[in-house]
């Protein structure tokens, strides 16, 4: 008996899938050879595990807001202790996996370093919580729409973005760049705010509205700084080594002093300094240093009334 039409379709699908699988395998081999230069292909940290870890770190720092709803004063400490133990072990495993990506990595040394970095990170959580409390207060004091500190913690995307940044920044400082970048990009996808984990940001930082804000890797921001939506703290140019290869890690983003306000749509580029207490108006394109206390604004638009 001849096969049914359904059998024929299944056979065609099987042949198509087998062919595509083989072509993708060959492309993967070429890519891995280019990336790892013939050495054994290492494991990669799992992105889902990193985003879950970020969520749990936030819950451990702010259990009443982001932990289980049924937490009570009598159960909160036990919840935090359980979370910290889980975070420590999971982070150690992820850090070890990232360290093993280095060409000369050795498993025993990477495991010991992963454990040490994860323990040091846990000790920094007290500092992160203390710093972020100043961010929440700055948002509440700086936004007339904020009705309570709890609302700020729950609802403000700029507040979420800076908490995620403070977590990722600690890992970046420890040399764990990939995990830090994955955390930063997860935050970017949720909040619309793009902060490189290398940026150094002081206390009481407030991003109002926030959508479209970009803060580059080597930016330095002082205390009590406020940004509005669509602000860019970016690089003006990229230095190369003479052969066309970009030089990594060079200071190339702005330094923003204490008590600065930068209004919506401002673009500030290069390793320039915005002095303490300066105000940068909306839509400004800035490539030069700004003196402390100065105000920079666009030319005032002219209103012309067409003859009637």
Model description:
The chain is an alpha/beta fold. The protein folds into 2 domains: 151 residues, serine acetyltransferase, domain 1 (Orthogonal Bundle); 89 residues, UDP N-Acetylglucosamine Acyltransferase, domain 1 (3 Solenoid). Helix content is 49%, strand content 10%. It has 8 helices and 14 strands. It has a 5-stranded parallel sheet. Strands 3-6-9-12-14 form a 5-stranded parallel sheet. Strands 2-5-8-11 form a 4-stranded parallel sheet, with no helix packed on it. It is globular. The relative contact order is 0.07.
What's the gist of this structure?
This protein is an alpha/beta fold. Helix content is 49%, strand content 10%.
At CATH level 2, the architecture of the largest domain is: Orthogonal Bundle
What percentage of amino acids are in beta strands? Answer: 5-15%
Poorly predicted runs are none
| Strands ordered across the widest β-sheet | 1-4-7-10-13
**Quaternary organization:** single chain
How many E strands?
Answer: 14
pLDDT averaged residue by residue: 94
Shape: globular
Termini separation comes to: 88 Å
CATH topology of the largest domain: serine acetyltransferase, domain 1
Give the C-alpha Rg. 25 Å
CATH domain class of the largest domain: Mainly Alpha
Helix content: 40-55%
Report the major sheet.
5 strands, parallel
Number of H/I helices: 8
Order of helices and strands, N to C? Answer: HHHHHHHHEEEEEEEEEEEEEE
What is the assigned CATH homologous superfamily of the largest domain? serine acetyltransferase, domain 1
């Amino acid at each position: 008996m001849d096969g049914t039409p359904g059998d024929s379709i299944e056979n065609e699908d099987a042949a198509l899938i087998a062919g595509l699988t083989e072509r993708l395998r060959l492309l993967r081999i070429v890519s891995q050879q280019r990336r790892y230069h013939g050495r054994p292909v290492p494991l990669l940290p799992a992105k889902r595990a990193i985003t879950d870890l970020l969520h749990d770190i936030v819950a451990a720092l702010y259990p009443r807001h982001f932990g289980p709803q049924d937490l009570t004063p009598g159960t909160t400490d036990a919840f935090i202790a359980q979370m910290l133990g889980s975070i420590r072990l999971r982070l150690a495993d992820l850090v070890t996996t990232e360290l093993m990506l280095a060409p000369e990595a050795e498993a025993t040394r990477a495991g010991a370093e992963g454990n040490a970095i994860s323990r040091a990170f846990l000790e920094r959580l007290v500092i992160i919580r203390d710093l972020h409390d100043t961010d929440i207060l700055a948002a509440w004091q700086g936004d007339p729409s904020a009705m309570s500190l709890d609302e700020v913690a729950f609802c403000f995307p700029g507040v979420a973005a800076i908490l995620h940044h403070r977590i990722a920044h600690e890992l970046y400082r420890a040399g764990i760049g990939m995990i830090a970048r994955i955390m930063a990009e997860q935050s970017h996808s949720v909040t619309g705010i793009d902060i490189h984990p290398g940026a150094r940001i002081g206390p009481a930082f407030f991003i109002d509205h926030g959508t479209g804000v970009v803060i580059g890797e080597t930016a330095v921001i002082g205390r009590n700084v406020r940004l509005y939506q669509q602000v860019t703290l970016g690089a003006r140019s990229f230095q190369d080594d003479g052969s066309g290869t970009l030089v990594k890690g060079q200071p190339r983003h702005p330094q923003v002093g204490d008590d600065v306000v930068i209004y919506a749509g401002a673009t500030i580029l290069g390793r320039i300094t915005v002095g303490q207490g300066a105000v940068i108006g909306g839509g400004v394109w800035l490539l030069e240093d700004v003196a402390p206390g100065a105000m920079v604004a666009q030319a005032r638009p002219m209103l012309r009334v067409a003859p009637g």
